[in-house]
TrEMBL record:
<dbReference type="InterPro" id="IPR003594">
    <property type="entry name" value="HATPase_dom"/>
</dbReference>
<dbReference type="GO" id="GO:0005524">
    <property type="term" value="F:ATP binding"/>
</dbReference>
<keyword id="KW-1003">Cell membrane</keyword>
<dbReference type="InterPro" id="IPR005467">
    <property type="entry name" value="His_kinase_dom"/>
</dbReference>
<feature type="domain" description="Histidine kinase">
    <location>
        <begin position="264"/>
        <end position="481"/>
    </location>
</feature>
<keyword id="KW-0547">Nucleotide-binding</keyword>
<dbReference type="InterPro" id="IPR036890">
    <property type="entry name" value="HATPase_C_sf"/>
</dbReference>
<keyword id="KW-0812">Transmembrane</keyword>
<feature type="transmembrane region" description="Helical">
    <location>
        <begin position="20"/>
        <end position="46"/>
    </location>
</feature>
<dbReference type="InterPro" id="IPR050428">
    <property type="entry name" value="TCS_sensor_his_kinase"/>
</dbReference>
<feature type="transmembrane region" description="Helical">
    <location>
        <begin position="181"/>
        <end position="202"/>
    </location>
</feature>
<dbReference type="InterPro" id="IPR036097">
    <property type="entry name" value="HisK_dim/P_sf"/>
</dbReference>
<protein>
    <recommendedName>
        <fullName>histidine kinase</fullName>
        <ecNumber>2.7.13.3</ecNumber>
    </recommendedName>
</protein>
<dbReference type="InterPro" id="IPR003660">
    <property type="entry name" value="HAMP_dom"/>
</dbReference>
<keyword id="KW-0067">ATP-binding</keyword>
<keyword id="KW-0808">Transferase</keyword>
<keyword id="KW-0597">Phosphoprotein</keyword>
Length: 487
């Protein structure tokens, strides 16, 4: 299969979408750009400095010769020494001087100049560029910088000579060539190395993100313990990791609550079912009288009622949690409702030798509430109070309202709740003394139901139980504006 252009484009665009690739490309391009700029500018500076130093040397020589011609025009020996001997003695960067009189006839010439340079070309090229330095190529390939200048002979300036100076700059050119060679070597090296360095930096930078992704990938309902360890992360990513860990904490907690809840449900359903099964098995083991059968059936019925109450409570809680649950609000006279609940529990209060009263408010407390749910909530609170108040105690129901809230309170003088258990009493299936409560028929769902009824109304529930002073539970429900009577 050959590569189609379109598939190459998609590969590139897929690569481009990765953060590592973008960072790598960015670092590499920036690095190459800077290296290129640095090398090129250094090269240009070096080249111009070399030219400048050569030109200064030439200007200096011109100046010396001019001075000699002007001040000592007859001292031919000194001139000859300057032109024929001094320059000829140099081994590197040799320079050549030619002195021409006003008829353009050579007067003095550095030996070997004609071998190195095409003198006719030199004269031609420098003729119109008086005192400017130009570059020409010598006969054997060496590069020269040359200049030519006019020089007055004698103080009275009887005539004018021409000085031509050429200096061999091939060594400087070689230096520049070596420099260019290394420039390309360094640039190629940078091409190879910068993407690697950039890739390492990018990898290092995004490693925390990848670790977070790996952790997230490992998380499932059976493995919620995994956490990110943000040591050494940059602070932005450390705070992201912290937020992520907090989310996992919350998830783990609610998962654990749900699985504890399911275990509790299974346990609480099993007990009555086992009881029914045990009774039935014992009853069937041999022939029984009809009275005995009756006892067994009654006992089974009791368990069945317990079971169906429990299932009813669970269903209620499940429905109350659903976002689709709604209230049937109506105008409720709360004082009247408390009295009904009191009446309902009158008999069991008498049985337990507990005084049960509903305190009457001076003004009627009326609010838009769901009557059935409110009855259920208050009923649960009264049942708890009666169950935990020893003979001789009292249970009081009361209600009052301010502008925004209805407060309904159930207080008793009972055994109270230990401080360490108080925060958990609204949890499902929580019982302070589970063995005792279980015997007395409590499932631990009563207060959970009270709380969800309060929350359905947009309210809340609070419980206090100062040691030795019984327990007070307060329901707080917001008062809704009274509905307009329809028709
Ligand atoms: N008025 C009260 N006085 C003392 N303890 C109480 C009172 N109300 C609730 N409790 C404690 O809180 C626990 C949870 O109450 P609840 O949710 O109604 O469950 P249940 O009544 O089924 O045990 C009870 O088991 C009991 O230990
Ligand atoms: Mg209860």
């Amino acid at each position: 299969m050959s590569w189609k252009p379109s598939s190459r484009i998609t590969t590139v665009s897929r690569l481009w979408r990765t953060l590592a690739f973008r960072l790598t490309a960015g670092y590499a391009l920036a690095g190459l750009f800077l290296v290129t700029i640095a090398i090129v500018s250094l090269y240009l500076v070096l080249e111009s400095e070399l030219d400048k130093s050569t030109d200064l040397f030439l200007a200096d020589k011109v100046h010396v010769l001019r001075t000699m011609l002007q001040e000592r025009p007859d001292d031919v020996d000194a001139l000859r020494e300057e032109i024929e001997l001094e320059s000829a003695a140099r081994q590197y960067e040799r320079f050549y001087i030619r002195l021409l009189d006003d008829q353009n006839t050579p007067v003095l010439t550095t030996p070997g100049m004609a071998d190195q340079l095409d003198l006719a070309q030199l004269a031609g090229k420098t003729k119109n560029h008086s005192e400017r330095t130009i570059r020409i190529k010598g006969s054997n390939g060496h590069a020269f910088r040359v200049t030519s200048a006019l020089a007055q002979v004698g103080l009275s300036a009887t005539h004018t000579d021409t000085v031509q100076i050429a200096i061999d700059v091939s060594q400087k050119e070689e230096l520049l060539a070596r420099y260019r060679f290394w420039f390309w070597v360094i640039l190629l090296g940078a091409f190879a190395i910068f993407p690697l360095i950039g890739y390492q930096i990018a990898r290092h930078g995004i490693r925390p993100v990848e670790e977070m992704a790996t952790t997230a990938r490992h998380i499932s309902s059976s493995n919620l313990k995994e956490r990110i360890r943000p040591e050494g992360y940059p602070s932005e990513l450390a705070s992201l990791a912290g937020t992520f860990n907090e989310m996992l904490d919350r998830l783990q907690e609610s998962f654990e609550r749900i699985s504890r809840f399911s275990a509790d449900i299974a346990h609480d359903l099993r007990t009555p079912v086992n009881n029914i099964r045990g009774e039935a098995e014992v009853a069937l083991a041999r022939a029984r009288t009809s009275g005995e059968y009756r006892d067994v059936i009654e006992s089974c019925l009791e368990e069945a009622v317990r079971l169906s109450d429990l299932i009813g409570d669970l269903l209620f809680l499940a429905r109350a949690e659903s976002p689709l649950s709604y209230l049937r609000r109506e105008r409720v006279d709360v004082g009247e409702l408390l009295d009904q609940v009191r009446e309902y529990y009158e008999a069991s209060a008498v049985d337990g030798e507990v005084s049960l009263t509903a305190a009457v408010a001076s003004e009627p407390v009326v609010a838009e509430l769901d009557r059935t749910l409110l009855q259920r909530a208050v009923g649960n609170l009264v049942a708890n109070a009666l169950a935990h108040t020893p003979p001789g105690g009292t249970v009081v129901l009361s209600a009052n309202a301010d502008v925004s809230t209805v407060h309904i309170e159930v207080s008793d003088t009972g055994i109270g709740i230990p401080a360490e258990a108080l925060p958990r009493v609204f949890d499902r299936f929580f019982r302070v003394d589970s063995a005792r409560s279980h015997g007395s028929g409590g499932t631990g769902l009563g207060l959970a139901i009270v709380k969800s009824i309060a929350q359905l109304h947009g309210g809340n529930v609070e419980i206090v139980s100062p040691p030795g002073h019984g327990t007070q539970v307060t329901l707080q429900m917001p008062v809704l504006p009274a509905r307009q009577p329809t028709m």
